[in-house]
Amino acid sequence: MEKIFLVGVTGNFGSGKTTVCKIFEQQGYPVIYSDSLAKEVLKTNPNVKNQVISTFGSESYFDNGEINTTWLAQKVFSDTPEGESNLAFLNSIVHPAVLDEIEKIISELILNGAKIIFIESALIFEIGIEEIFDYIILVDASKDTIINRMNLKGVYSEEEVLKRLKKQMPSEEKRKLADFVIYNEGSFDELSRNVGLIITLLEGMRTSKKSKV
User: Is the pTM of this model over 0.85?
Assistant: First the structure.
């Protein structure tokens, strides 16, 4: 019986982990995007939604039910003790619900024959879920690269980028904990080649580890 690998893909804000996951998808591998699931949980899970409103106010959601991300970001990314507490609280109510959803999706993918499943999550090490993965890939980039990347997108200011990075474990610490590191400092073609190399390594390790029947 062939081994099934659960592979975590993590990286700090702006590192390019979503781009890496898109390459995995293009190569035919299933990817579970936990950040997207977190947004869905915030929007649709009644228990989570009620706790968010009771803590951060009705302004947390627009009248159409969509998340007021600007409001919540101000609450959880402020550089104050209150911001730290708010972020910890938000994580504590969202992540258990997200993990439940991930388990359901993994079960379905395995039933459909998936052998390597990638799970994208920015906070694998921060929330202590590394043990659920067979391997963890860290997508890494320098602070300057991340700032320039976000500035080019025109979405986040340098101050906003630094606030988000400050809330996450430094990448140098994550490098010590990850099984693979992809340095996303070059071209897309270079990134694709590095992703392809990791796919080759994972496939080789998976097929060489067969359980006795």
Answer: yes
